[in-house]
């Protein structure tokens, strides 16, 4: 009988030792897991607040974008309106310029018609011809010269005889009281 009770006693002691070991392992592991859970929870809280900050910024940006889009649309509308007005004004100016050119040509032709002076270029003092001294008129002012003289005005001779002649886009009318600038496109042959 005492053998049995000894066996039982030693088994009981053994179990208690195992339980204590298990219990201390359990406490340690639980502590580690709890602190890890706390760490992750804190991290989640911080990430969530960052996320809601981003959401707020997104809302602000979307609002700003729609405001800017509206402003852009309004500006585009103004630009379109201005362009329309500009096109109308340009058309009006073109019409005026065409009328002025026609009047200038008429005036110029009439004032020189029939006289000996009307058949001579006032720049080179040579008669107009059909080879290169075409009788021509500057449409911006209505003054007449031969085409050769007018075209020469667009070649800028280098004062140091550098071998390059530069083309210029505008020249001044050779009439001493005029000096209005004109382009090659403003030269019109009269006949
Ligand atoms: Zn001439
Ligand atoms: Zn002129």
Describe this structure in words.
The chain has 191 residues and is mainly alpha-helical. It has 2 domains: 45-113; 116-189, Zinc/RING finger domain, C3HC4 (zinc finger) (Herpes Virus-1). Helices cover 61% and strands 9% of the residues. The protein is built from 2 helices and 7 strands; from the N terminus they run αββαβββββ. The strands form 3 sheets. The protein has a 3-stranded antiparallel sheet with strand order 2-1-7. The protein is rod-shaped. The protein starts with a helix and ends with a strand. The mean pLDDT is 88. The structure holds zinc ion (ZN) (2 copies). One zinc ion (ZN) binds next to loops. One zinc ion binds next to β2 and α2.
Give the topology:
Layout: H1 2-112, E1 135-138, E2 144-146, H2 147-152, E3 155-156, E4 166-167, E5 171-172, E6 181-182, E7 187-189
Antiparallel strand pairs: 1-2, 1-7, 3-4, 5-6
Bound molecules: zinc ion (2 copies).
């Amino acid at each position: 009988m005492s053998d049995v009770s000894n066996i039982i006693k030693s088994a009981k002691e053994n179990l208690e030792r195992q339980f204590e070991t298990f219990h201390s392992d359990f406490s340690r592991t639980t502590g580690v897991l709890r602190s890890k859970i706390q760490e992750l929870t804190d991290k989640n809280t911080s990430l969530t607040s960052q996320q809601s900050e981003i959401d707020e910024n997104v809302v602000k940006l979307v609002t700003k974008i729609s405001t800017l889009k509206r402003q852009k649309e309004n500006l585009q509308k103004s630009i379109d309106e201005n362009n329309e007005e500009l096109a109308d004004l340009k058309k009006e100016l073109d019409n005026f310029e065409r009328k002025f050119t026609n009047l200038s040509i008429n005036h110029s032709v009439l004032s020189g018609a029939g006289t000996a002076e009307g058949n001579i270029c006032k720049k080179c003092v040579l008669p107009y011809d059909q080879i290169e001294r075409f009788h021509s008129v500057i449409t911006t002012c209505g003054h007449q010269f031969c085409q050769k003289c007018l075209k020469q005005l667009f070649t800028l001779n280098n004062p140091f005889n550098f071998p390059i002649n530069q083309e210029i886009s505008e020249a001044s009318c050779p009439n001493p009281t005029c000096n209005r600038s004109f382009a090659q496109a403003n030269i019109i042959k009269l006949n």
